[in-house]
Specification:
By secondary structure, the protein is mainly beta. The protein has one domain: Sandwich (Jelly Rolls), CATH 2.60.120.10. Strands 1-2-5-12-7-10 form a six-stranded antiparallel sheet, with no helix packed on it. A five-stranded antiparallel sheet has the order 9-8-11-6-13, with no helix packed on it. The chain has a two-stranded antiparallel ribbon with strand order 3-4. Strand 1 and strand 2 form a beta hairpin. The radius of gyration is 15 Å and the shape is globular.
Length: 163
């Protein structure tokens, strides 16, 4: 198990991987879903033992920043159904990026390539993360919203994942 889990006080995340909340702005903002903190941050770690962040979406925009390890691949689907893939990692010459933003309402999954030991990122979420604003993907929801992508996304949906 990664030494980072203990050093950063990370706990298992229901989306896969490990996380710990960092900063949470005391300022608040009114959203259609209710009052939310203006912004917050987390550490998020994928490890060889927990190498997949299951497909989910948030109402808020989330910017990811690479700290250590990787590369890690992010698969996203916009509300309009546009599928894209971004690789976060230190090899800028190979087209990897150090930061990326996933707009609210987009589905996302993250995963390590075979042989990658771990990847630590931070996420800045605005308005701040709230469990009521997050949805884990199900086969039924993806089939209804993006039937043409269902087979491509099936491996990243928690209910169909087999280690």
């Amino acid at each position: 198990m990664s030494r980072l889990i203990e050093q950063l006080g990370l706990i298992e995340h229901d989306e896969g991987g490990w996380f710990a909340q960092g900063f949470k702005s005391p300022a608040t903002v009114r959203t259609p879903a209710g009052e939310r903190n203006l912004m917050d941050t987390i550490y998020y770690l994928l490890t060889r033992e927990s190498a997949l962040g299951f497909l989910h979406r948030n109402r808020s925009d989330i910017t990811h920043f690479l700290h250590l390890g990787g590369p890690v691949t992010y698969l996203t689907v916009s509300p309009e159904g546009e599928l894209s893939q971004v690789v976060m990692g230190p090899d800028l010459d190979a087209g990897q990026v150090l930061k990326m933003t996933v707009l609210g309402g987009s589905w996302k999954s993250s995963f390590l390539a075979p042989g990658v030991a771990e990847c630590l990122v931070s996420e800045a979420v605005s308005p701040a993360f709230h469990y009521d604003d997050r949805e884990l993907a199900t086969l039924d929801v993806i089939a209804a919203e993006h039937p043409d992508l269902l087979e491509r996304l099936r491996p990243y949906i928690r209910e169909t994942y087999i280690r």
